[in-house]
């Protein structure tokens, strides 16, 4: 009375199919749970188990393999100690199959398949038992009917199917509760112990969600015998999306190896790299917080290329391990030798091609769209510290508009505060550079005077503020380690854009930031450098000034209404007219500006000028009008705008890209000094001059050494702005000027006639603290 199912053909390989839940049904489920929930968790390695509503021999679980194919057996597991049900599992069962889900036939005429022996009850909850049929059968649907059990008929189950031919010589493992390839071909195996499948949710830092495979540092590594699909061993591509929880810059973590490579191959040791070669993706240290698309390709010429998130980061022709040709049948993932090199983490996808796929295809598979490459070949980069109205943000505390030196609304470098977002997650600071140009990086600072700064960030750029592209495929850049140092972050390759967004990822206390953009240094105009001290950038192109001995601060521009100024109160006169207020300022040599109430000009503040070292900055109220002292013959008009520096915080310039001769030059410095005192104070120098140069000596400008006989007679007073000039002609004549008046000239024999060092001019700095 036995009617056998249609016999199938012999299998070249077997695949363990973990059937999706939408293709699983059952006779009943304990407590009425839906399939995939509670006692309806049928899949292998699921955290739960299936248990029927009635514990009798009329119950079954049905698995739909998706199409009529060769069925070679079933795989079963116990309850996995779900909800404390230890040692609950099926010990024997029947199997029925069907091609249409209506007509059913017993496998092998009702053979009872045995699972665990009594001696195995301690491991039966977890151990998978493979139950092969004597011969494969042709079917689509499989029913497993418990015949015997320990304590209760609880089980998890899958199907053994014949390995299908792979499509287009590629393998794609999507980790959907299964180690099978969605493009056919061999299945991954876990010979060192099973990992587990888990459903994860995306978050604002990383977008990966859904089912992933967990591998552990004690088990979960995967092996692939690929020869039935990947037949070419000299040309291949491997791409995987993984998150590594135990990244350590001092320890190797194996990602892709083979025994034929002596367990060398793809590793992470902080950086993604091919061991033991010099191919290292040193553009970023991998973080345990994120999923990454990591790829390796090898072409027939032996060129190996590495990618992170689709961005090509290393390429070369290694000679070790036969140039990393693939062995015939051994690809190992996430398993190290020795065991302390085992990684721990999640994988959501592994893809393998029997060919080299293009850079653009890898970018596409990794979800990366790169911005346009920079059009200019930069000789150097300069800092573009943009005007305040060039900044915008996702949100801004204390108001929605950026304002110079206003609390939480001041994102410019060196401002007195910073930008502070309202919401920390998904926040961004945007800068408009004014035109589409070559962008080489960004500069970041934390919050002035307090412990808040951004530690890591991504960068996006755009040509039109509408379509945005991630720099280097979403590279995580390292940021600041304190609140006031400026960190220059250069991109691996320049990009062409107008708008730049910085997106904080991690931070110290809060993501508070000041920022600017790095752009290509423009050629200077006619050998002329003009630093107007709104920034350290020349208005006529050429190199930036540098502050290698400590940075000062920029004094903001004056405006008529309330604003922040680094001025300090001297005295307040109530009910004073504007004329009387100016006269009071004229009579006080320390007065740099006056601030009047708007109510008919009554009420007068006198304030110390630029550079005074007493008191604290005062925030002006918006009911005042600011006026600078412009009547004085001592030229205080320029005091409010400029770069404020302390003793020892001088400036340095590498002028070589602009000034083509060191014999013939002119230098004009517009400055105010607060610590004139007695003795020598260096104003202009150059490396080849040694300790010689233009100094303030006893309040007079002169050329040191004094034996040069070049000293001006005008006195330079503290807290007054002066224009100091120095010129040299090609025949060696030096001239000094103060406020446009020639005050000394000659042919000094010192310092090679004061020819400039071709790459060094120094201002306001002396190594001996003069």
Please provide a written account of the structure.
With 770 residues, the protein is mainly beta. The strands form 9 sheets. Strands 1, 2, 3, 4, 5, 6, 7 and 8 form an 8-stranded antiparallel sheet that branches. Strands 9, 10, 11, 13, 18, 19, 20 and 22 form an 8-stranded antiparallel sheet that branches. Strands 23, 24, 25, 26, 27, 28, 29 and 30 form an 8-stranded antiparallel sheet that branches. Strand 45 and strand 46 form a beta hairpin. The protein is elongated, with a radius of gyration of 37 Å. Residues 557-569, 597-602 and 609-640 have low confidence and may be disordered.
What are the key terms here?
770 residues, mainly beta, eight-stranded antiparallel β-sheet, 3% helix
Radius of gyration, taken over Cα atoms and rounded to an integer in Å: 37 Å
Beta-strand portion reads 35-45%
Rough outline? elongated
Cα end-to-end separation = 111 Å
Compute the number of strand runs.
Answer: 48
Low-confidence stretches: 557-569, 597-602, 609-640
Average pLDDT, to the nearest integer?
87
Number of helices: 4
What composes the largest sheet?
8 strands, antiparallel
Helix coverage percent: under 10%
Overall structural class, as computed from helix and strand content, comes to mainly beta
Short characterization:
The chain is mainly beta and 770 residues long. It has 4 helices and 48 strands.
């Amino acid at each position: 009375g036995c009617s056998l199912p249609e016999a199938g053909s012999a299998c070249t390989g077997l695949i363990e199919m973990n059937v999706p839940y939408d293709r699983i049904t059952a006779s009943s489920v304990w407590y009425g749970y839906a399939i995939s929930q509670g006692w309806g968790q049928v899949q292998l390695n699921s955290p739960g188990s299936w248990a029927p509503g009635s514990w009798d021999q009329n119950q079954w679980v049905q698995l739909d393999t998706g199409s009529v194919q060769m069925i070679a057996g079933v795989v079963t597991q116990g309850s996995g100690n779900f909800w404390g049900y230890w040692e609950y599992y099926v010990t024997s069962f029947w199997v029925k199959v069907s091609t249409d889900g209506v007509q059913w036939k017993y496998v092998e005429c009702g053979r009872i398949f045995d699972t665990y022996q009594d001696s195995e009850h301690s491991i039966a909850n977890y151990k998978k038992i493979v139950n092969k049929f004597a011969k494969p059968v042709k079917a689509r649907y499989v029913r497993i009917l418990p015949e015997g059990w320990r304590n209760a008929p609880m089980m998890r189950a899958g199907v053994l199917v014949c390995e299908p031919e792979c499509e287009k010589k590629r393998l794609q493992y999507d980790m959907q509760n299964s180690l099978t390839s969605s493009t056919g071909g061999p299945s991954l195996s876990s010979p060192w112990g099973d990992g587990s499948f888990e459903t994860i949710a995306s978050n604002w830092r990383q977008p990966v969600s859904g089912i992933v495979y967990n591998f552990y540092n004690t088990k979960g590594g995967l092996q692939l015998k690929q020869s039935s699909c990947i037949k070419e061993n000299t040309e291949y591509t491997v791409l995987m999306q993984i998150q590594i929880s135990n990244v350590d810059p001092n320890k190797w973590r194996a990602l892709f190896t083979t025994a034929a490579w002596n367990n060398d191959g793809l590793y992470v040791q902080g950086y993604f790299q091919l061991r033991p070669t010099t191919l290292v993706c040193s553009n970023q240290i991998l973080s345990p917080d994120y999923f990454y698309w990591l790829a390796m390709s090898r072409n027939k010429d032996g060129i190996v290329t590495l990618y992170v998130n689709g961005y090509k980061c290393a390429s070369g022709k290694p000679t070790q391990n036969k140039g990393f040709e693939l062995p015939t049948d051994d690809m190992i993932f996430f398993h190290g030798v020795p065991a302390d090199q085992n990684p721990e983490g999640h994988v959501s996808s592994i893809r393998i091609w029997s060919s080299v796929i293009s850079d653009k295809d890898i970018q596409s598979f990794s979800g990366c769209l790169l911005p346009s490459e920079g059009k200019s070949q930069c000789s150097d980069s300069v800092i573009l510290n943009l005007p305040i109205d060039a900044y915008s943000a996702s949100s801004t505390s204390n108001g929605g508009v950026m304002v110079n030196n206003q609390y939480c609304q001041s994102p410019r470098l060196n401002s007195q505060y910073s930008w502070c977002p309202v919401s920390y997650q998904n926040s961004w600071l945007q800068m408009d550079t004014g035109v589409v140009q070559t962008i080489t990086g960004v500069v970041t600072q934390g919050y002035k005077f307090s412990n808040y700064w951004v530690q890591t960030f991504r960068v996006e750029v755009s040509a039109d503020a509408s379509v945005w592209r991630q720099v280097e495929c979403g590279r995580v850049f390292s940021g600041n380690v304190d609140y006031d140092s400026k960190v220059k972050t250069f991109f691996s390759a320049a990009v062409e854009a107008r708008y730049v967004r910085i997106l904080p990822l991690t931070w110290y206390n809060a993501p508070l930031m000041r920022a600017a953009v790095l752009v290509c240094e423009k050629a200077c105009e006619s050998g002329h450098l003009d630093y107007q001290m709104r920034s350290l950038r020349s208005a006529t192109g050429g190199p930036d000034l540098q502050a290698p001995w400590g940075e000062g601060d920029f004094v903001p521009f004056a405006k008529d209404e309330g604003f922040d100024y680094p001025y300090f109160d001297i005295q307040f006169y109530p009910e004073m007219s504007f004329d009387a207020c100016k006269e009071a300022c004229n009579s006080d040599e320390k007065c740099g500006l006056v601030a009047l109430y708007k109510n008919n000009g009554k009420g007068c503040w006198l304030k110390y000028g630029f550079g005074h070292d007493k008191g604290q900055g005062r925030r002006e109220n918006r009911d005042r009008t600011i006026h600078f002292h412009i009547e004085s013959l001592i030229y205080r008009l320029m005091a409010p705008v400029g770069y404020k520096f302390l003793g020892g915080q001088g400036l340095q310039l590498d002028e070589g890209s602009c000034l083509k001769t060191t014999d013939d030059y002119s230098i004009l410095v517009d400055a105010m000094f607060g610590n004139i005192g007695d003795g020598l104070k260096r104003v202009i120098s150059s490396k080849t001059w040694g300790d010689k140069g233009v100094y303030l000596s006893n309040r007079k400008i002169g050329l040191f050494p004094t034996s040069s006989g070049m000293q001006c007679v005008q006195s330079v007073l503290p807290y007054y702005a002066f224009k100091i000039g120095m010129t040299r002609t090609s025949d060696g004549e030096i001239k000094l000027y103060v406020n446009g008046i020639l005050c000394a000239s000659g042919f000094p024999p010192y310092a090679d006639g004061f020819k400039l060092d071709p790459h060094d001019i120094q201002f306001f700095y002396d190594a001996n603290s003069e």
